[in-house]
Amino acid sequence: MRRELVVLATVVALAGCAAQQKTAPGAQTPGVTDTTVKVGGVLTKTSASGYSTKDAELGAKARFERANAAGGVHGRKIEFVGAEDDTQDAAKGDAAAKKLVQKDKVFALVPVHAPNFGGAVFLEQQGVPWFGWATGPQWCGTRTGFGYNGCLAPKPGAGSQTWWGNQMADLLGGAKGKTVYVQTSDSSGSKYGGKTISQSFQAAGFTLVGLNSALPGAAPPADWLPYVNKIMTSDAGGPPDIVVSIIAGTKFNVGLYSALKKAGYKGVLSDATSYDAAILKDPATAQALEGVIAAPMFEPFESSAPEIAQLRQDVEKVAPGTTLTQHLAIGYWSADIFLKMLEQTGRDLTREKFLATGNGSFHYENAGFGKIQYPKDHDEPSGCGALVKLEGGAYRVAKSMKCFDNVPLK
């Protein structure tokens, strides 16, 4: 009789465990418990050139903290383990992704903001979602990589962005009769960016007079003169109306712009990275970038939009007095899109169901970053962006966030 009671108690206990497992949706999914979802990121916190995206970690944390303060998503709070540093090395990025997935057991990677990120193939093979700034071709054509701005390196025939050229045309009163020269480095992401940005300006009506991708991306050159000479004679022997720099790093742009100004260049200078408040702290750097029109793919911090006021409030709560930067915004909006997708997936959370939501008909609009549509934006950019001008040592909104139709990449 005693033996029968022991067996019965064991059966009841096992049944209780099974029932408990059944009532904990997502319990078998890595990084998911009944009360938490674990995520971590990969950033280029340090690099030989000085380029750093470390502020994206704080941006993501600020957004996650607001979500957690509101009770989380479907009762689960975000457990953010922070971000690994890939030092702008593809192999280290791959190792960082593997550590987060295999050792830390994260559900997803948020944010990923590394120009030479090398973990894309591994994450795709493992079916692990990742969110961030889709600056390179490794983001495109996946089912797991969700750029907050879509795919910036579409394949020929796929949609390519026109917003930068159209915003500039609106700002300058039209593109007719105006010329543009595009300077990139020799990195794959920079070269591909040069190709798509060139088309953006051409689609808006500008005439392309040069595209140079010979600049070494490892470090700024000792002598800028060969590059400056090409630019200053690119428009039938004279300088172009606009010079667009697709180079990752303030040091590069400071060198190029200083050399151009010294050579007498009076036209428009534009890039995607010079919207950075840290620039204003160094008078020499600020002077070199005076007049530059930056092209962020989010609504500028100087905007009066409620979404930007909320961002500022969220960041102030977790890190009072923090200087807002472009990289911070990218981390914030990447986290925001991840949370929206998490919300739409529902309480019964697995990676498969999450990816089915993202790759079903996911559409999200927000004045902070424009709009995103998946699965379409796995293959083309979102088509949204703003312009900011550094003027008199301060930034001002030149053109607020706006979205334009893409055109097929030639």
TrEMBL record:
Coiled coil: none annotated. InterPro entries: Leu-bd (IPR028081), Peripla_BP_I (IPR028082). The keyword Signal applies. Keywords: Signal. Residues 36-393 form the Leucine-binding protein domain. It comes from the Bacteria. The keyword Protein biosynthesis does not apply. PANTHER family: BLR6548 PROTEIN (PTHR47235:SF1). Belongs to the leucine-binding protein family. This is ABC-type branched-subunit amino acid transport system substrate-binding protein. It comes from Nonomuraea africana.
